[in-house]
Amino acid sequence: MYQHYRAIAAATRLPIVVYSVQGRTGVNVEPATLARLAQIVAVKEASGNIGQMANVIHEVPSHFNVLSGDDAITIPLIALGGRGVISVASNEIPGPMTRLAQACLRGDFETARAIQSRYLALMNINFVESNPIPVKAAMGLMGLLDPVYRLPMCAPSAASLAKIEKVLESVGLAGSVSVAG
Q1: Which among 49, 46, 85 has a CA at the least distance from the CA of 65?
Q2: 122 pLDDT more than 50
Q3: What is the C-alpha to C-alpha distance for residues 26 and 42, in angstroms, rounded to an integer?
Q4: Which segments of the chain does DSSP mark as H helices, in order?
Q5: Which are the catalytic amino acids?
Q6: Average pLDDT of the chain, as a whole number
């Protein structure tokens, strides 16, 4: 894994963000591997393992950004020293997700928890099926886009679509193009 990312870093001057999500890749990027990769500027940490996230933050150089790759655990990751989020829910609610991350970074966890509490069901429903299918469906229901699915993606099941719509209604987003929330 180290050699792979080292070769990528040597081939470009662009900043590199490692996407660590074992559920999609079948491979976990270990904290020690990330610590060796000084050329890498950040990791989108989506392992779901808070202990691993704490170890990554502890082991990487100070210039290295550890970003949450899971909206629902942005608060604990930033509390541990993470620096932000690469958010799925920000496609639907960019304003609230920005405010959540900014509140965390200022140490205002009460505000961050209130925002998360309001939108946690949305953060969770975004994974009722493989991402980005639910997000695209939600954005379609919100009137933000025409939900066109290209293979291998396909439309969500009727049951999932009903769940997505119910969550959107519960947070006041169904049929609304307002995402300022």
Answers
A1: 85
A2: yes
A3: 20
A4: 2-10, 22-25, 31-36, 50-59, 74-79, 94-106, 109-125, 133-141, 158-170
A5: 19, 44
A6: 91
